[in-house]
Design a protein that fits this description.
CATH class: Alpha Beta
Strand order of the largest sheet: 2-1-6-5-4-3
Order of helices and strands: HHEEHEEEE
Number of domains: 1
Structural class: alpha+beta
Number of strands: 6
Shape: globular
Radius of gyration: 14 Å
Strand content: 35-45%
CATH topology: Nuclear Transport Factor 2, Chain: A
Length: 134
């Protein structure tokens, strides 16, 4: 599948907004990038990390950003495809996570499905995986 240049630019902007929101430590900024629907789903990197709906996703990001302050996220390879108002992303990513005063580099993967609503692309489904950290 191909992606139109405008869609690719908008999805990349949404991914950059996610990295900035994550680095800010404000879970509300992260949550604003997700669709506010009851069936929006986010999977975390470990077994049992499945959140459905805005309240569960907000609580997960609030906990994560509280437990790992001064962390950031970087996308190093990104593939974007789309059809109509739906786009999907597969990406390699790096997270720099501060634990006990040390910054750890975690290399992983990210996948997501976005839906265009008006001029915004919102995350309907996301999945982070950091296999080397498990």
């Amino acid at each position: 599948m191909n992606v139109e240049p405008k869609t690719e630019t908008q999805i990349m902007a949404a991914l950059m907004a996610l990295t900035h929101a994550y680095a800010s430590g404000d879970y509300r900024r992260v949550l604003a990038l997700y669709a506010p629907d009851a069936d929006t789903v986010a999977f975390g990197p470990t077994i049992g990390e499945k959140w459905i709906g805005p309240a569960a996703i907000a609580a997960a990001y609030e906990r994560e950003l509280k437990n790992y302050p001064e962390s950031d996220l970087e996308f190093v390879w990104v593939s974007i495809s789309s059809v109509g108002a739906v786009a999907w992303v597969a990406a390699d990513c790096k997270a720099h996570v501060k634990v006990d005063g040390r910054v750890l580099l975690l290399e992983g993967r990210f996948s997501a499905v976005f839906e265009r609503r008006g001029e915004r692309w919102l995350i309907m489904h996301s999945h982070f995986s950091f296999p080397a950290a498990m």
